[in-house]
């Protein structure tokens, strides 16, 4: 799996949430909340677990990724309920839990990429 592609897909989720908010479109919050439903989640549960479970960064990424999907599902529910101001606030850059978890997932992916590079280049 290409970890950079996985990171891009998670960033695109924010765009999907914002677009749904602008269009007043309903989202499948259960699907969004399923951390094993995306490519990164499947990799973390399978190949990533096999090759990276010994790294503390793996455990942290696993938890942050799960929490990220739960928070994204919460935002999707706000959108579905028409609570657009609350959804906008929940997606705000910086102080929002969504933003913090998104950054944590990005940092975790970067750390695992570094560990994997060291593992296979050494």
Automatic annotation (TrEMBL):
<protein>
    <submittedName>
        <fullName>Chemoreceptor zinc-binding protein</fullName>
    </submittedName>
</protein>
<feature type="domain" description="Chemoreceptor zinc-binding">
    <location>
        <begin position="10"/>
        <end position="75"/>
    </location>
</feature>
<keyword id="KW-0675">Receptor</keyword>
<dbReference type="Pfam" id="PF13682">
    <property type="entry name" value="CZB"/>
</dbReference>
<dbReference type="InterPro" id="IPR025991">
    <property type="entry name" value="Chemoreceptor_zinc-bind_dom"/>
</dbReference>
